Amino acid sequence: MTQATTKTTTTGNDWEPKIVAFCCNWCSYAGADLAGTSRIQYPPNARIIRVNCTGRIDPDFILAALEMGADGVLVSGCHPGDCHYTSGNLKMQARWALLRKAIEQAGIDPRRIRLQWASASEAQIFADGVTLLIDQVKKLGPLRGQWR
Amino acid sequence: MTENETPRIGVFVCHCGHNIAGTVDVVRVAKEAEKFPNVVFSTDEMFMCADSGQELIRTKIKEHDLTRIIVASCSPRMHEPTFRRVVEEGGLNRYVFEQVNLREHVSWCHMHEPEAATEKAIDLVRMAVARAAKLEPLPIKRVKVIPRTLVVGGGIAGLRASLDIADRGFEVVLVEKQDKLGGNVIKWTHMFPSDRTGTEVVEPLIERVESHSNIKVYKSSRVIDFEGYIGNFEVTIESQGRKKNETVEVGAVIVATGFEAFKPKGYYGYGESPDIVTLDELQAMPRQDLLLRPSDGKPAKKIAFIGCVGSREPGKKGHEHCSRYCCSAVAKAAADLRDRVDEALVLYQDVRTYGRGHEDIHRLARQKRVIFSKFEPDEKPEVTVTDGKIKMRWRDVLADDQLAFEPDLLILASAMIPPSDVEETATMFSLTRSGDGFFNPEHIKLAPLTTHTAGIMIAGVAQAAKNASESVIDASGAAAKAASLLARGEVEIESTVSRVDPDLCSSCHTCVAACPYGAISMDDSDPPIAVVTEAKCHGCGTCAAGCPSGAITMFHSTDEQILSMVEALLVPSPISGGE
Ligand code: SF4
Ligand code: SF4
Ligand code: SF4
Questions:
Q1: Which residues of B touch A43 (CB under 8 A)?
Q2: Do B514 and A51 touch (CB under 8 A)?
Q3: pLDDT tens, position by position, B43-75
Q4: Are residues B155 and B256 in contact, defined by beta-carbon separation less than 8 angstroms?
Q5: Has this prediction a pTM greater than 0.90?
Q6: How far is CA B558 from CA A12, B84, B496, B551, in A?
Q7: Global ipTM
Q8: Using H for helix, E for strand and C for coil, what is the string for B406-447?
Q9: Which of B18, B109, B129 to mutate to test the interface with A (most CBs of A within 10 A)?
């Protein structure tokens, strides 16, 4: 990784955060596709899981990912009003506030999770969002000490 | 394949020539995949989507008795249908196929980090393997196609599409929001680069459409509700002056909603003088021997055009694209009008008269001594209006000279932008839009006329800026797509719907409120239990995520399938290989 911030990580030079990214098929997954087609370069830490709609994302999935050791979780979907399924993303948005609270109460910095909207044409916004979360998580360090 | 049988997974890693293999060590990915649970076969191959790659899948299914197939290649948004078909030809259910995106999501966006890219590829394959083990064959559902098409928009594209479908023997419902057909074209008394008036071009089409026994035209009308799925849509149409809304059933939809000419407020004095008009406004001026300027009705003697107004502006959302029709139209307009005026000037950034015969028009304009002068994109001409007089100042790039001109009439070749109600249309038909604001096709090269909503086609400028001839070509193409769907009579639909387990349902109504399609209702039992109407379910999964009792299964996207991927990434199983 070219942008590895060796100074800000708390655990040495070689720690790279693991990020789980849930992307809706119609907007953000397509946006990530376009980022590739446009050869936009961004850090390789995120692993995308494709779901039909952000509405499909049960907060339990995010909690489970953090529990299993993900250092950060990204949820990326269609802009409000642009949902392929008209309003699934609004349901996700409604769950998000509760989720943040739950995470905070569990002692986890809510900056480890990020909800963003990126349409099929917003490749750069998608890539920037991924980069931003990774940078944020790097500053926070590994979720549970040294990874593995 | 029964549920309890141990899955036998085959993994095929694609090089995509140099596209993936140039960054990702595909041989290593395939080798690593061999070690993942339930994998009994793994290999790498130059082009998986080519005939040889497809044959390889079919052969290996037989040879190794594979029950789950993973192809690690490009985006599933491109080739999932291809590989699902191949898997079916190999004797498996299409839903036991899983695709990993190593190109768009890995090699192309981590080009300078081959090591990290390879690690990511291995992770993604491991996740797919875990998910594949949980995949279930699903029933393949076929439904009848209602042999009728809805065409939205009665401009030149909508008219052409309607006629093509109707002539093919299928019914068409054409909905136009204006009180007459013909769209933008009919307003134009001058159809640059053609010699004819807009009326001459579209009137024959309109006459045929209005008298065609297979076409029903709704003018001053809008689609206000749209439900259903490919082959079986229900459309509600609201018409001005009609008290009751009408509902029609259609099997296919063509969206041909066209464009609006950008009103370039803030550009080159537009709005400050009635003699500064857009190309669209010029085209709508009455046809007469003399070119009269709007301010005082006196003949214009000196005219000027400026190109790319609101087009090709990097960084300005909705205005970055080339509008594609204006260069040729400006060249033609200037050549034509040159005979009636003393001087005609065209200021341009670039001239792109790419269409058939358009270069001749460009040449003709130059022969007629239309002056072409190039300016720099970041050094736009200055236009001022004082006491009704228009003054232009700019630097000519080729002469490197500061020039000035005082036209009686200034024409701005303004951009084609989506109509103001484009967002409504997008929401109505679940279409996504690209950076220019027009609708996204399913695939820019492989499927430019279909969209990601099955059964919905786009034609003409609804898809991107283009000229009238190109719009008509599109329209015929989209019509052919629709007609072939209707002619088939039957179509397969996705089995990815949700289902409620009645034993677990706690009657909370959460899902009923969550479903965007009203696909869930409570039955009459006591206490009532939620039931999904599969035909209405679009498979978003919102209900499954919201159900507090875990009573809802979203097929092909079950909790188990999703969590198995998370687990495979973060706490990989120590089990090695299959068998
Ligand atoms: S077609 Fe229009 S937008 Fe495109 S380059 Fe020519 S003038 Fe500019
Ligand atoms: S998955 Fe659930 S919420 Fe989505 S359309 Fe189907 S029934 Fe409705
Ligand atoms: S959300 Fe779940 S428990 Fe509530 S009614 Fe729907 S299926 Fe039943």
A1: 110
A2: no
A3: 999 999 999 999 999 999 999 999 999 999 999
A4: yes
A5: no
A6: 38, 19, 10, 11
A7: 0.90
A8: CCCEEEEEECEECCCCHHHHHHHCCCCECCCCCECCCECCCE
A9: B109
